[in-house]
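Project standup — Tuesday

K.O.: blocked on the structure for the chain from last sprint. Re-posting the sequence here as requested.
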Amino acid sequence: MKILESEAIDLRQEVLWTFRNIFKNGSINAIDQVVNGDFFEIIKSILQEGHHDHKCIALEAIYYLLETTRRFGRIGTVYDVLESVGIVKVLEDLQGNPSMNIYAKAVTIIENFYNTEEESIF
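H.V.: unblocked you, prediction finished:
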């Protein structure tokens, strides 16, 4: 995970794309090998302070992670980690982002994976 903390913007972007693609196309076993607490802390940091393009890719990675784990019936664990690390709060905050792209991605995650009508985790 140290490579995601790299100051080299191009390198960080390529690593984010790799994770995004693993989450989109990978098996649940591949996801289990990648995801740990450090990963989510780094993603949270990118969402809060990162480059615009990195935020967009990180949001896509979260979307595909949730989509894939839901398909495999393992989304509860991801919900718990996203909540405990504070990413859920960051997603809520990103709904106020001036970038329409970031705003739309954050809203899509919330609308697709969190039931805002009933018991909300926000």
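K.O.: great, moving the ticket to review. The two ends are 28 Å apart (CA to CA). Residues 52-71 form the longest helix (20 residues).
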